[in-house]
Each structure stands twice: as structure tokens, then as C-alpha cells.
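Z., the sequence and structure:
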Amino acid sequence: AHLYEPRPLVQWNRRPSRGRSRSFVGQNPPEGAMIYYSLVKDAQRVEILIRDADGKTLRTLRQPRGGSEAGLHRAAWDGRDLEGRPAASGPYFYRLETAGQIRSRKMSLIR
């Protein structure tokens, strides 16, 4: 298994428009952190744990069947903990656990 370097997680604040509205056509940025990983062979179970700087697990992302087949995959973390509360800005770690392999990387949450 392999984990790829993440981009910082940026949460956009939604604000009502003021004055004249302007049109913009384009793709919206993805909500949350996109975590990319690849598997060399099919796995029975794939879990991605999101941990804070103290090592406390904030969230566990379990991948559906399609996320456990050999190949490139992605998972999204919405920047929230298990209870749906927004996580604070700062460093976080994500850990891929599958088929007896463990890989970890660091990411940043910016609010």
C-alpha cells in the first residue's frame, strides 16, 4: 500500500453575496481533504484513521468494497470528528491500515 502527499485541508466560509452578483463558471473545490492511496493487491479491509497531534483518533474512514481493490483510490475527510463537530486548525495525521500494512502521513487543516 502507498499513501500520497496531501494538500492542506481548506474549509471555505459561506457568506451571502453583497451588491451585484458576479457569475463564475468552473468546478468547485472538493469539500474536505482528499486522501489518495494505492493498493498493490486486493484487501479484505481498508481503514483510514484521522488523528490529532496528540495521537487521539478523531475519525475512522472505512472504504467500501470498491476502495479495497488493487489500484488507485481516494477517501475524503470533511474536517469533522466522530460527532460531527469541526476540528480545529492545525496538524493532523492520517493512517492507512490494510492487509497487515500501516502507512502514515501528516496533513494540515486550515480554517
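The two ends are 30 Å apart (CA to CA). The chain has a mean pLDDT of 81.

Let me know what you think.
H.
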